[in-house]
Amino acid sequence: MDQENINKFIPMTSINSGSTREVAPDIAYYTNQIVNLVMIGPRAGPWVLIDTGMPKSAKSILKAVEERFGEDVPPVAIILTHGHFDHVGNVVDLVSEWNVPVYAHPMEFPFLTGKEAYPEPDTTVEGGLLAKISSIYPNEPIDISDVLQVLPAGGIVPHLAEWRWLHVPGHSPGQVALFRERDRVLISADAFITVKQDSMYRVLVQKEEICGPPVYLTTDWALAHASVSRLAALDPQIVISGHGTAMEGEELKQGLVRLVNNWKEEAVPDHGKWVKEGNQ
């Protein structure tokens, strides 16, 4: 396995970094600098980890896992919502520690098997400071071929019988979200997020607001809109997004309606290399 291409510390953080928050007895999320990892399962196990955070953070993630589940209670699997650097940053170190399989959508496989790099982040896009400095974010592929497995067809989530996965492309080709019907909990990945990710100030203070996907890495705005519309139709009651704090209730519902109905104004930047007619 190899992730040396992305294995560099990215100097950014938020006020929530290092905290674990529980949204249900069997669901908690850990904020690693500016991105969320989700732990699904009872404290006694078995449990599943969703995403693996920013590069060079394995020690802090292992500590958070131990604080929630105790010593020597590794997950039974890791599921990657997509392969961007801030979601796969510690996958090799964690797999080496736990010896567990990793699941992803097949359309993400080129970026997870060393075959293809993502497009370089768009520093020309309309947005705040984090968009302007996005050239520091690695876009190279990693290679976890030895442990990588395809998410089962039909939305089946390995080891999580109550959950289903949904293909939500736009931000990346094979991005997936996860949904549990019983309590309408949604893990939205970066299909939509709860902080304006291009603004350094809003990321730092974690200002809550329903936003479209990060502008500097979203390559297909039409697909992204279709994905958000699909997730909004689920009528989620609680959402844990890839970035920002968990949101619930009426604030979440109204925010999603506004985002879907005013997509071009709310989400699509005025300019950028992936903004063009027919792609909004």
Structure write-up:
With 280 residues, the protein is an alpha/beta fold. It has a single domain (4-266), classed as 4-Layer Sandwich (Metallo-beta-lactamase, Chain A), CATH 3.60.15. Helices cover 24% and strands 18% of the residues. It contains nine helices and twelve strands. The chain has helices spanning 58-69, 85-88, 91-98, 109-112, 129-132, 200-205, 221-232, 249-261, 263-266, and strands at 20-24, 27-32, 35-40, 48-50, 77-79, 102-104, 148-150, 163-167, 176-180, 185-189, 238-241, 247-248. The strands form two sheets. A seven-stranded mixed sheet has the order 1-2-3-4-5-6-7, covered by helices on one side. Strand 1 (20-24) and strand 2 (27-32) form a beta hairpin. Helix 7 packs antiparallel against helix 8. It starts with 19 loop residues before the first strand and ends in a 14-residue tail after the last helix.
CATH architectural name:
4-Layer Sandwich
CATH level 1 name: Alpha Beta
Q: Count every beta strand, where a strand is a DSSP E run of 2 or more residues.
A: 12
CATH homologous superfamily annotation: Ribonuclease Z/Hydroxyacylglutathione hydrolase-like
Helical segment tally? 9
Distance between the termini: 37 Å
Strand arrangement, major sheet = 1-2-3-4-5-6-7
Helical content class: 10-25%
